[in-house]
Amino acid sequence: MKPIYIVTDSTTDMSKDLIEQYGIHVVPLNIQIDNETYVDGVDIMPEEFLSLMASSQELPKSSQPAIGVFKELYDELGKDGAQIISIHMTGGMSGTAKSAESAANMSTSDVTVIDSQYISHALSFQVVEAAQMAQKGHTVKEIVNRMKEIQKATTLYVVVDKMDNLVKGGRVGKGRALIGSLLNIKPIAMLQDGVYTPVAQVRSHRQVVKHLFKAFTEQTAGKIIKKVGISHAHGLAMAEPLKKLIEESGVKDVPLTFTAPIISTHTGEGAIGFMFYAE
User: Fold this and answer.
1) In this structure, what are the phi and psi dihedrals at residue 64, rounded to the nearest 5 degrees?
2) Residue 163 — pLDDT band, cuts 50, 70, 90?
3) 100: DSSP letter
4) Are 120 and 273 in contact, with CB atoms under 8 Å apart?
5) Is pLDDT above 60 for 126?
6) Residue 140, Cα to own-chain centre: how many angstroms?
7) For the residues of 116-129, what is the DSSP string, one character each?
8) Residue 44 has what DSSP assignment?
9) Is a pLDDT exceeding 60 seen at residue 115?
10) Contact predicate 73/27, CB 8 Å
11) Is the pLDDT of residue 45 over 90?
């Protein structure tokens, strides 16, 4: 039986060990700061990116990998007849999945592209399970159907600590941001159907942790918690207490990672992402 290869992009926030363990192929996105272009995870690392972003006058711009990069990888992986499943960040934030689809249509290989509807660990939930299923001999159809189930069972929260990037990106007006800053407001949003959707506002890091933990316990009640993940952009003031509460509630080994530049471009410094799926 020929293998099924799993491809994803650099917004997964997955550890190198996990990527190597399952033989996952990661295609990096590009980021532009002050007319300089960097390859995510190759030319620039997450913490270094935050320093450059802080000194930049304009919001960094991200761009999806070129269609040719995807096509070259697909052609190579599928040259012996192997199938490929390519799972990517939400199309609501990037054209990555569209680039992958275009490359799949051009490639001679058998490629199935999935828009995960998510980012960060919520994307990796699907990527890892797809890789596990592929290793166990499941078909592409079975894996695709399972990805749809995981999407429905996944919840992702984003908390912005400072509104600077929301202003630069045109999502929040300067006046509203000033008021928010004076009141120490922390906007909480969910990624629903691949779209950033505000759901609450609180006024301290402590209230953020309380709100997220309450939402977690309510939404997972009576369910089996499959995976939990937390990512941050120098947001440990919220991320660490939340991780502690989650682990004290009985969930072990909650990954806490520094998020990819593509994500922190949207959220700004100090933000966190909190993701889980339960069935």
Assistant:
1) -70, 160
2) low
3) H
4) yes
5) yes
6) 23
7) -S--HHHHHHHHHH
8) B
9) yes
10) yes
11) no
Q: Could you tell me the CA-to-CA distances from 134 to 25, 113, 177 in Å, in that order?
A: 14, 15, 46
**Residue 143 pLDDT exceeds 70:** yes
Q: What is the DSSP letter of 187?
A: E
Looking at residues 137-157, what average pLDDT do you find?
Answer: 97
Q: Which residue has the higher pLDDT, 46 or 170?
A: 46
Please, what is the average pLDDT of the chain?
Answer: 89
User: What stretches of the chain show up as alpha helix (H) in DSSP?
Assistant: 16-22, 46-55, 67-77, 96-106, 120-135, 140-153, 164-168, 174-182, 205-220, 236-248, 261-267
Looking at residue 42, the DSSP 8-state letter turns out to be T
Q: Residue 165 pLDDT more than 60?
A: no
Look up residue 259 and give its two tokens.
């998020």
Single-letter amino acid code for the residue at 197: T
| In the block, residue with structure tokens 């309380």 | 210
What does the alpha-carbon distance between residue 200 and residue 207 come to, in Å, rounded to a whole number? 11
Q: Is 53 helix (H, G, I), strand (E, B) or coil?
A: helix
Confidence of residue 161 (pLDDT cuts 50, 70, 90): confident
Burial string for 136-171 (b: 16+ CB within 10 Å, else e) reads: eebebeebeebbeebbebbbbbbbbbbbbbbbbeeb
Determine whether 26 is exposed, middle or buried from the number of CB atoms within 10 Å of its CB (0-12, 13-18, 19+). middle
Give the span between the Cα atoms of 3 and 131, in whole angstroms.
10
Instruction: Give the full edge-to-edge strand order of the sheet including 30-33.
Output: 36-39, 30-33, 61-63
